[in-house]
């Protein structure tokens, strides 16, 4: 097809196109990538991040007509929204000319013709779109790409090129009113908000622009920094009515409101003590950002909101997880990695647990109720770059275990592996509450275990756990998913999506979906050879034995 | 100082991504225990522990390998992720000793018999890149560009070669 297909095909043939779990096989369904040309100067530096955008049709996704676009079915209107933004290469309306839509080379569907772009009455069916309206948004070097999750096409359907600075992080919210739904954080510290996805195609792509040229944090400008401090992570506040937060490499988080103009002059008082957490609200009501959270003096590597939007978790270079009450501007608790920076964090959908992963190669599980680490996952051979709970997972109830809640989660790392884990809470909690079992020859029964029984003070940061005292868990399955180091994973209803740092995406269909889709997929060729790597049943190892 | 004898054999590594992790060292001893046990037909244990963790821990990556077909040495540009901090936990005193990376010698070039060396040194919490008479301040995230490549033939030939870690004191 195009050059990008060749890039994927050149991958190591030794990689398996499936992996086994107790509930069945996950099969490689689709691969997505970008034209290989963008990679030439990004080696090692640019890290691709992944966002999933579900375009919700307001009525239904079935054949009923959408009000905004008459004579267009839900299927095509969703497509038109994306395609519409891709018509030509006109500079966008916001200042700086930063971000120019252009057709992807090798993708003939957009082409130069704006034929399908309005979506109003174009009779030509858009073959590549199914009725699900789910898109993958990922960055690579200086470009942001959009691919259709459910199409076989490897190439993105749209790309947005940024001429001034690389996009480094992005977030999407389907609930946001008014169409501006896609947030993009740039390497310069600028933030761009765009109606890239949800806006009906006939309008041109408009965008708000915040923190132009990194103006708010210019005063920390060092010799090295381009301008301001680079964005590292970005998120909509769930239930936040258009509020979003942006994390920066200088240890600050800025809170913005979507509807406020981003050009008004805003200033925050100088940070008195770089090491202390402090929240400053803007003095002027016109200011946007509306608040600055100074977390500490190092980079904020990732942030994540609980699903109700009340709590914010951050992880950073200093190896600390910090959990805040977002409305009260308060630190609830914090804890540290075994060693090195933490790189990623994620909440369980019920808000009870937080996962972190980092440079100590471990996946840590934290209880928000007990305010401490409850389990430590050993299985990666390199830095853990992405963690996520599988919120679509439900404990198989056929065994009638009833009480035992099992959380399923996944992690990806620079070791190119995708790991899946089961967390059985009854097994975890019991050994902790009873204290470490005695009589083990290797267990150090000395002092370090003491803090497990002590009450953790609200608002305190705890030191690194003694690794011997934390219950260990082992992965359910370890699968070498890509040839490149991985950067992120996302669970969807039907699949697990993994992305490498270089921007290659693989979509692994869940067992129950893999069968029905098998015939339609030409790519997921499943070898019939016997499997060597049998999935090991996960269990919490007896902590006394799991001493390294 | 058991570390001096530990070779991080990236040449034999099938996967072209690697990491410096003390647990590899421990796993190797565990494996040996299994062999030893089955050989002796009785319960026995062999282990290696670090008697005295060094103040400066130097790790030399074996980035060169003799290729018989070619009759010469070849440079290995494999990706080896080295952490900014690490902990040794297999010490005699059972106290984790924590280390922080403070210098890296980088080999630049595609072959073992030519090329150039530059070094990265952390000074007063800033990373400096020394390239002959040029000294440049760099962001810590730049250190990651010297990990090597996960692809066999990439243009990236600037690889971390000798790593220097400094003990942060005996605290856990």
UniProtKB/TrEMBL annotation, chain A:
InterPro entries according to UniProt: WD40/YVTN_repeat-like_dom_sf (IPR015943), WD40_repeat_dom_sf (IPR036322), WD40_rpt (IPR001680), WD_repeat_creC_regulators (IPR051362)
Does this entry carry the keyword Plastid? Answer: no
Q: Which UniProt keywords are listed?
A: Repeat, WD repeat
Q: What protein name is recorded for this chain?
A: Uncharacterized protein
WD repeat positions: 335-376
Region named Disordered: 101-125, 513-548
Q: Which PROSITE patterns match?
A: WD_REPEATS_2
Which superkingdom does the taxonomy of this entry point to?
A: Eukaryota
Q: Which SMART domains match?
A: WD40
- Compositional bias, Polar residues, is annotated for 536-548
List compositional bias (Low complexity) regions by residue number. 105-123
One Pfam family named in its UniProt record? WD40
Automatic annotation (TrEMBL), chain B:
Keywords on record: Hydrolase, Protease
The answer to whether keyword Protease applies is yes
Q: Identify the SUPFAM superfamilies for this entry.
A: Cysteine proteinases
Top-rank taxon, per record: Eukaryota
Name the catalysed reactions.
Thiol-dependent hydrolysis of ester, thioester, amide, peptide and isopeptide bonds formed by the C-terminal Gly of ubiquitin (a 76-residue protein attached to proteins as an intracellular targeting signal)
- Gene3D superfamilies per UniProt: Cysteine proteinases (3.90.70.10)
All copies of domain USP, residue ranges: 1-168
Q: Name one GO cellular component term.
A: nucleus
Coiled coil regions in record: none
Q: Which GO terms describe its biological process?
A: protein deubiquitination; proteolysis
Q: Which InterPro entries match?
A: Papain-like_cys_pep_sf, Peptidase_C19, Peptidase_C19_UCH, USP, USP_CS
User: Might you give the EC number(s) for this enzyme?
Assistant: 3.4.19.12
A GO MF label: cysteine-type deubiquitinase activity
Q: Matching Pfam families, A to Z?
A: UCH
PROSITE patterns on file: USP_2 (PS00973), USP_3 (PS50235)
The text of the family note is: Belongs to the peptidase C19 family.
This protein is called what? ubiquitinyl hydrolase 1
